[in-house]
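Consider the tokenized backbone below.
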């Protein structure tokens, strides 16, 4: 193991040791994750509804002006 790596870990521990034992840190992360999941589920629902109600042709493209077939 390289001494620089050990130094970096030691420095990181000294800077963030208080957070390692703070029970609120984990709770805040869980709450934020739950909020993110709820937001993403809402977005999925919105996009699903938009997709279900958007008009499409049989080939999956949006309908446009009808082109006339030439003989």
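A designed sequence for it:
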């Amino acid at each position: 193991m390289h001494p620089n790596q050990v130094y970096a870990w030691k420095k990181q521990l000294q800077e963030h040791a208080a957070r390692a034992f703070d029970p609120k840190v984990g709770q805040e992360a869980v709450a934020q994750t739950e909020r993110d999941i709820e937001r993403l589920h809402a977005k999925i629902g919105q996009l699903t509804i938009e997709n279900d109600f958007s008009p499409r042709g049989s080939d999956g493209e949006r309908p446009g002006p009808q082109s006339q077939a030439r003989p």
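The helical segments are 3-20, 23-53.
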